[in-house]
Design a protein that fits this description.
By secondary structure, this protein is an alpha/beta fold. About 35% of the residues lie in helices and about 20% in strands. This is Alpha-aminoadipic semialdehyde dehydrogenase.
């Protein structure tokens, strides 16, 4: 990718639009559905048909609203999904609870073996599933495959973790006593995922939750239901081969009614929610009202800071990849590019030239580096942001318009001339708009990085090692991801992923993120014949 960018192709990530619309219309009849076209045979390979069940709890069902999934690149209908009713949600939760009684008794390393098999099953379908992600969600094919690979990687990570999770044995101040930490599963983990990573985010949660001894209930984004169904089919086959209850990995496709039910349900031991800050706040309040656990992965208004000593051969491809990748629809997308005044004009010129060379097209075409926005609503948000930019005094360096082609395509856009605290600069707009800001001092740049409400990802470009460690330290970046000389996006699975402030504070994937999926007990065991009290207290 970096070679492509430096060659002038600058980009690789994209998201496309999928819109769920209430069922059967003339435009979505069987003859026009993409699932019936030979060039999309990967859909049949994944077990998809014209009409698909959107509920799985050991058996397949779906008696709720029928919705049609559309390809964002051309707005053609792909296939239909029958969503869950509230009665089916209730049935699924009950079956998941019953399945947990079986799964919790399986030793953790054996659970890891099942997760290993899930990873292998995903490997076997990686091209077909990656194609579906590209078609339904809108990412370019290579990114769709990469997203499935991320789920596979997390499975591999979880297999090793299944033999390592646990707490320490601590020294006791009392003779003849042992002090230990015991970790146990929370039970049922609810997983609500977003449209922009319809496979990977579920994988982060699912693989780790499973080896911890939990069962999972998944509600994917209502605009990517076919991906949810296809992934669940793959996982369900593994559970069936191991003679395990299918409800260990349940799924209920649906909208806000299902999500609200999960947030309010006291039987859901942990609710992992990935989405917008606005909806995340509502979810947090509902979960907190019942004193439940929550894991929030919300928005990010991420910044790259370029100092006067930066290697511009690293800066330009990094900034382009992070700002235009996935058509600006990653939570880690770079939205603010802060340039030292000495390099400002040079970097803007280089990046603008790169933007104009980005290959825009259908996401499943190998040469494409940039695709459409996910929905028509996103296009309107893009236009509204451009209007605010003009009202607040910004200058369009490039972009700013809808593209004249089918699908929800907009031009990748660069804005200069706005103050660092302009309202639009402080607003996370999930579209490919990059705000370029000019700074003078290190303190100024660090302060601007931290002044927005979100705290997900950040990066500086410099050769000054003192500055690097100031950036990593307590007075540096306040984000959960703090990078040096790399983009804000493209995190590895081995580290904990998440952010601070309005990003939600949750952590997923690697490091000790597994602890969020378990409950901890401190256990004191007296194996002596005496009863000494802590702190030397005498009670005689």
């Amino acid at each position: 990718l970096i070679r492509l960018i430096r060659a002038g192709c600058k980009h690789r990530h994209k998201h496309t639009l999928i819109k769920l619309s209430p069922s059967v219309g003339a435009a979505a009849n069987m003859s026009t559905l993409l699932v019936n076209r030979p060039q999309y045979s990967c859909l049949r390979e994944l077990g998809l048909s014209e009409d698909n069940d959107g509920v799985y709890n050991g058996s397949w069902g779906g008696q709720g609203q029928v919705v049609t999934s559309y390809c964002p690149a051309n707005n053609e209908p792909i296939a239909r999904v029958r969503q869950a009713t509230m009665a089916e949600y209730e049935e699924t939760v009950q079956k998941a609870q019953d399945a947990w009684k079986v799964w919790a008794d399986v030793p953790a390393p054996k659970r890891g073996e099942v997760v290993r098999q899930i990873g292998d099953a995903l490997r076997g379908k990686i091209k077909a599933l990656g194609s579906l992600v590209s078609l339904e969600m809108g990412k370019i094919y290579v990114e769709g495959v990469g997203e499935v690979q991320e789920y596979v990687d997390v499975c591999d990570y979880a297999v090793g973790l299944s033999r390592m999770i646990g707490g320490p044995i601590l020294p006791s101040e009392r003779p003849g006593h042992a002090l230990i930490e015991q970790w146990n599963p929370v039970g049922l983990v609810g997983i609500i995922t977003a449209f922009n990573f319809p496979v990977a985010v579920y994988g982060w949660n699912n693989a780790i939750a499973l080896i911890c001894g939990n069962v999972c209930l998944w509600k994917g984004a209502p605009t990517t239901p076919l991906t949810s169904v296809a992934v669940t089919r793959i996982v369900a086959e593994v559970l069936e081969r191991n003679h395990l209850p299918g409800a260990i990995c349940s799924m209920t496709c649906g909208g806000a009614d299902i999500g609200t039910a999960m947030a309010k349900d006291e039987r859901v031991g942990l609710l992992s929610f990935t989405g917008s800050t606005q909806v995340g706040k509502q979810v947090a309040m509902m979960v907190q009202e019942r004193f439940g656990r929550q894991l929030l992965e919300l928005g990010g208004n991420n910044a790259i800071i370029v100092f006067e000593d930066a290697d511009l051969n690293l800066v330009v491809p990094s900034a382009v990849f992070a700002s235009v990748g996935t058509a600006g629809q990653r939570c880690t997308t770079t939205r603010r590019l802060m340039l030292h005044e000495s390099v400002h004009d040079d970097v803007v010129e280089r990046i603008a030239k790169a933007y104009k060379q980005i290959r825009i097209g259908d996401p499943w075409e190998p040469s494409t580096l940039y695709g459409p926005l996910h929905t028509k609503q996103a296009v309107q948000q893009y236009l509204a942001a451009i209007e605010q930019v003009k009202q607040q005094g910004g200058t369009l360096v490039c972009g700013g318009k809808i593209m004249d082609r089918p699908g929800n395509y907009v031009e990748p856009t660069i804005i200069t001339g706005l103050p660092h605290d302009a309202p639009i600069v402080h607003t996370e707009t999930f579209v490919p708009i990059l705000y370029v800001l000019k700074f003078k001092t290190e303190d100024e740049a660090f302060a601007w990085n931290n002044e927005v409400k979100q705290g997900l990802s950040s990066s500086i470009f410099t050769k000054d090692m003192g500055r690097v460690f100031r950036w990593l330290g307590p007075k540096g970046s306040d984000c959960g991801i703090v990078n040096v000389n790399i983009p804000t996006s493209g995190a590895e699975i081995g580290g904990a992923f998440g952010g601070e402030k309005h990003t939600g504070g949750g952590r997923e994937s690697g490091s000790d993120s597994w602890k969020q999926y378990m409950r901890r007990s401190t256990c004191t065991i007296n194996y002596s014949k005496d009863l000494p009290l802590a702190q030397g207290i005498k009670f005689e």
